[in-house]
């Protein structure tokens, strides 16, 4: 038996009674059946829900350890989910049923992801990640920060790649308006920190704080290394630098666009005149008019 798994199960789901009686000897009220022929009572948020222990054990290694290890939960056929929501458990239970094609939605995806990760239901976790990638693409900076944090906490690699790709395409839009970021978000942004610094005009002079080799990040991706804390601390300055560079970037784009205007204006203004009759002064006037906007 997986000892770490057993320890986790014991710590998270402690049973306060070993039979269908309360500590004072009173009988528990009849449970609400979520399926016919259930053999396991789940106590959650003051309610008793009757389910099939086999389905929980097959879907979740955590429940399997609790029910098959000689723990009180397995012997008494009762599980107490303290601090959990009845509504969330019902959603979780429904999606564990074989052949259930109920879609993951915007309303339930975040709670289902939390349950799937805690109880190690990888199939459901993958469905949640697929929904996030396809249907919940962040449009605002605050939504991006929350999504980065979620991707880090639940180790969603596909979601992580999607979010970092969005950031790379438009760092000013997604990062410039964030006054601060969560440490978990900073951990994911470590991988593109040199690009962020380049976009904000921050010069990396040494590797010690900012540049991290890929093998170092892979060694312990779940820990918040000092590098992440460094990013969190200096983030307000980086975001401010990104915002300041936005007008400059737009001005440079305008200058590049205007560089071709003299020739364009000349073509349209004198296109009906023969080339020999086009006044040289007109060309010089147009060129001089737009000279300040030419690129260096």
From TrEMBL:
Region spans: Disordered: 1-30
Ranges of compositional bias, category Basic and acidic residues: 1-13
Stored SMART domains: BTB
InterPro entries on file: BTB/POZ_dom, SKP1/BTB/POZ_sf
Biased composition, class Polar residues, residue ranges: 14-23
Superkingdom of source: Eukaryota
BTB domain mapped to chain residues: 38-105
Record protein name field: BTB domain-containing protein
Organism: Polarella glacialis
């Amino acid at each position: 038996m997986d000892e770490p798994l057993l320890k986790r199960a014991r710590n998270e789901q402690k049973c306060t009674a070993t039979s269908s009686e309360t500590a004072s000897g009173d009988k528990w009220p009849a449970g609400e059946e979520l399926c016919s022929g259930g053999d396991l009572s789940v106590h959650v948020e003051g309610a008793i829900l009757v389910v099939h222990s086999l389905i929980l054990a097959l879907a979740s290694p955590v429940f399997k350890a609790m029910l098959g290890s000689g723990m009180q939960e397995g012997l008494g056929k009762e599980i107490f989910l303290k601090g959990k929501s009845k509504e969330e458990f019902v959603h979780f239970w429904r999606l564990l049923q074989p052949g259930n094609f109920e879609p993951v939605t915007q309303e339930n995806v975040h709670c289902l992801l939390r349950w799937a990760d805690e109880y190690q239901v990888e199939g459901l976790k993958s469905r949640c990640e697929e929904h996030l990638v396809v249907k919940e693409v962040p449009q605002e900076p605050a939504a991006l920060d929350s999504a980065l944090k979620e991707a880090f906490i639940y180790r969603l690699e596909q979601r992580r790649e999607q979010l970092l790709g969005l950031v790379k395409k438009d760092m000013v839009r997604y990062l410039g308006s964030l006054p601060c970021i969560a440490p978990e978000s900073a951990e994911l942004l470590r991988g593109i920190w040199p690009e962020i610094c380049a976009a904000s005009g921050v010069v990396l002079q040494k590797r010690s704080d900012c540049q991290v080799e890929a093998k170092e990040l892979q060694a312990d991706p779940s820990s918040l290394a000092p590098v992440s804390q460094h990013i969190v601390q200096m983030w307000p300055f980086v975001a401010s630098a990104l915002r300041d560079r936005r007008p400059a970037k737009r001005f440079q784009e305008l200058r590049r666009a205007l560089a071709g205007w003299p020739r364009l204006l000349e073509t349209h203004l004198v296109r009906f005149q023969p080339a020999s009759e086009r006044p040289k002064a007109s060309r010089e006037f147009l060129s001089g008019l737009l000279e300040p906007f030419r690129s260096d």
